[in-house]
Amino acid sequence: MNPIEHLLISWAVAEATPLERRDRAIVTLAGLAPDLDAFGLLPELATRGTSHELYWWTDYHHILGHNIAFAAICTAVAALLARARARTAMLACVTFHLHLLGDLIGARGPDGFQWPIPYLLPFSNAWQWSWDGQWALNAWQNFAITIPLLALALWLAWRRGESPVEIFSARANEAFVRTLRARFG
Description:
The protein is mostly helical and 185 residues long.
């Protein structure tokens, strides 16, 4: 799945129970955290065609962040940073695993490559999650998931005054909600 879907799914989970803004952000960011290993794409692109090419994205995406050890780290960090520690940590663990599930079902590359998920790393490489029915990243199924999630996020913003924008700025969220309410009553 694409980052927007991961964001919207994680935000919907964070909105499922009463949490403060900070804890909603923690839950949402935990759902995006597995893709921190995708930042290797930047040095890989920057060094492409040079005599010292770095294959950080090719070699490490879906390896470093898509496993049980990183799930435990994200859950522990969520518990340490949250005000509602147990609830936030549990929901952070849920959004982390929803990210993995989303990648398992809908992240096949355009060349047909499936990203297996080495869930038991670093303890074992024996079990890798994969599914032969995995749809492409740009398949209609991902759009069919994104549209209702986006509608839900807009409705929650209009109804509750809370949107994914608040993760980045409370003032920007207020402006977004104000504009949304002015447009749709």
